[in-house]
Design a protein that fits this description.
2 domains; 188 residues; mainly alpha
Length: 188
């Protein structure tokens, strides 16, 4: 049998199989309605119970499901840890706009500087743009130097870094982190 003959025979067999799967009710297993839950070991199913829930439950139900899986699934454990720590117990992360006194000036500076960032008309002149950037950065740096007590902020962030979330609650930390991210972006 020549190579061309073998190729033609295999092509015809392949065409027949594709036609059979398309025109008949027979389907190979990947095309059936199988669920990933079918692949979960029985020990895990018995531990968690059957998940017959309709997708789209409340966030708290979904978080509860993730926490229930945390003991037997590494990815779920890491996600539960992320929700607990960085999300302040919820997802999307919760924020609190009642901040410790040391970091409140950042919010005030944000509210003062945010309206100055967009321009009504764009400029294509590099000198005009450089002057605008320098004035914005100068004002930003001046406000930070005048209003922020870095020693107090450092103490507060050190407390958060050491896990003392009673001093700087996670939800307030999340809001502060967002504010600092905006300030960094605006300054650049």
């Amino acid at each position: 049998m020549s190579v061309i003959t073998g190729y033609l025979i295999l092509s015809l067999i392949g065409t027949f199989i594709v036609t059979l799967t398309r025109l008949s009710s027979w389907r190979p297993w990947p095309q059936k309605g199988f669920k990933l839950v079918d692949l979960v070991p029985a020990a895990v199913k018995s531990r968690l119970g059957e998940h017959d829930k309709v997708p789209g439950g409340t966030n708290q139900e979904k978080i509860g499901d993730i926490i229930a899986l945390a003991d037997c699934h590494e990815t779920a454990a890491r996600l539960a840890d992320l929700i607990s720590k960085d999300g302040a117990g919820t997802w999307p992360p919760r924020v609190n706009l009642v901040w410790p006194a040391a970091v409140r000036p950042y919010m005030d500076i944000y509210h003062e500087m945010a309206p100055l960032l967009p321009a009504a008309t764009a400029s294509l002149d590099d000198e005009v743009n450089r002057d605008r950037i320098d004035r914005f950065r100068g004002r930003f740096a001046k406000l930070l130097a005048e209003r922020v007590d870095l020693a107090e902020v450092t103490r507060l962030l050190d407390a958060a870094d050491s896990g003392r979330w009673d001093v700087f609650p996670r939800d307030a930390y999340n809001a502060f982190y967002c504010c600092v991210a905006w300030c960094r972006h605006a300054y650049r």
